[in-house]
Amino acid sequence: MSDQKHATAYWKENLRYLLILLSIWFLCSYGAGILFVDQLNAIKLGGFPLGFWFAQQGSMYVFVILIFVYVRLMNKLDKKYGFDND
């Protein structure tokens, strides 16, 4: 595979990961915290409505978890395309 095709395939896969992870974060922060808050408020978590919890803390937790998932995915992607330093 030529270097240009190699780099293009790498970035396509990288962008696919980004879109998936950002979509998950959007659904958790905007969707669960704003759009679906009435339905989620019927469920209690630690004494607080689940919609309130997502709006206040849940989306931040999800974001931090997604950072670690992205790092793991990128390390695997780097190894797959030979861009790792190991």
Automatic annotation (TrEMBL):
Membrane-spanning intervals of the chain: 15-36, 48-71
Domain of life: Bacteria
Residue ranges of every copy of the Sodium symporter small subunit domain listed in the record: 8-83
Keyword terms: Membrane, Transmembrane, Transmembrane helix
Annotated InterPro entries: Na_symporter_ssu
Transmembrane listed as a keyword: yes
NCBIfam families linked: Na_symport_sm
Protein name: Putative solute:sodium symporter small subunit
